[in-house]
From TrEMBL:
Active-site residues per Swiss-Prot or TrEMBL entry: E152
Superkingdom of the organism of origin: Bacteria
Signal sequence interval, chain numbering: 1-23
Organism: Streptomyces minutiscleroticus
Protein name: Chitinase
Keyword Disulfide bond among UniProt keywords: yes
Phylogenetic lineage: Bacteria, Bacillati, Actinomycetota, Actinomycetes, Kitasatosporales
CDD domains: chitinase_GH19
Length: 299
């Protein structure tokens, strides 16, 4: 499983205080749904109690799952969830191109931690994922993400990095925030094996979750784990020149997703067997999803 050092940090809202580990608030009843325009407009920096419903700048409604000081509903998805109004639910996960049966077919030996429900719950964090372009492109992107995830986790078997000797290495003390959870706390976790303190900080800031102080959420909460994978996929270019999401929706091809995830160790002939493993999974998954793999499969 690869470990990548991401130098680009996503500019996002900073977390003012630690996020308490709480049971998720019950979602607002669809029966109470009304026209989106009937809800007050969201205001940045205004305090919202759990259960508050606001209308965001995109015209959609969001309900606060947890008290928060005006975090952006489209970024801080731990605090906010899309709320049904006007034409029904706004959660894009309802139209996910991968069915649960197909997911199970892809990962017959997966850990029980990696639930399909957790993946669908994470989709609201990045609505453009597997929801951009033609039906073929959407299926190809879903297959590409899951193929790379398959490689990183041994078929969704491993939740945490297996080589414990590496654990103390992922703390960069030069960062101003240091490693408050402990030097050995930022080892690889989740579907794309998030590692290093600065990556936990960046992913947590983007998602509205304090992963710097509580990195264990990534191995304890399936939705959080999937969200960190989607964070990398949609916002980070790693050693590549584009995000994996952009590689798929702009036609660069599957090979560029490999480059963005672990190109410095695998691409340009460095480790063709690892590249082939990813390509094989991608071709298998596109077949399961009833589409073609497209071109430019290798990096």
């Amino acid at each position: 499983m690869s470990k990548r050092r991401v130098t680009s940090v996503l500019a996002a809202l900073a977390i003012a205080a630690s996020v308490p580990v709480l049971a998720p608030a019950a979602p607002a009843s669809a029966a109470a749904a009304a026209a989106c325009s009937s809800y007050p407009s969201w205001v940045a920096g205004q305090w919202y109690a759990a259960g508050s419903i606001v209308r965001y700048t995109d015209g959609k409604a969001y309900v606060a799952e947890h008290d928060n000081p005006g975090y952006d509903p489209t970024i801080s998805t731990w605090y906010w969830e899309p709320y049904a109004c006007d034409n029904g639910p706004t959660n894009p996960s309802q139209g996910f191109v991968v069915s649960e049966a197909q997911f199970n077919q892809m990962f017959p030996n997966r850990s029980s931690f990696y639930t399909y429900a957790g993946l669908k719950a994470a989709l609201s964090a990045y609505p453009a994922f597997a929801n951009t372009g033609s039906d073929t492109v959407r299926r190809q992107e879903a297959a590409a993400f899951l193929a790379n995830v398959n490689h990183e986790t041994g078929g969704l078997v491993h939740v945490v990095e297996q080589n414990t000797a590496n654990y103390p290495h992922y703390c960069d003390w030069s960062q101003p925030y240091g490693c408050p959870a402990g030097q050995a706390a930022y080892y690889g976790r989740g579907p794309i094996q998030l590692s290093w303190n600065f990556n936990y900080k960046a992913a947590g800031d983007a998602l509205g979750i304090d992963l710097l102080n509580n990195p264990w959420l990534v191995q304890n909460d399936p939705a959080v784990a999937w969200k960190t994978g989607l964070w990398y996929w949609n916002t980070q270019s790693g050693p590549g020149s584009m995000t994996p999401h952009n590689a798929m929706v702009n036609g660069a091809g599957f090979g560029q997703t490999i480059r963005s995830i672990n190109g410095s160790l695998e691409c340009d002939g460095r480790n063709p067997a690892q590249v082939q493993s990813r390509v094989d999974a991608y071709q298998r998954f596109t077949q399961i999803l009833g589409t073609t793999p497209g071109s430019n499969l290798y990096c």
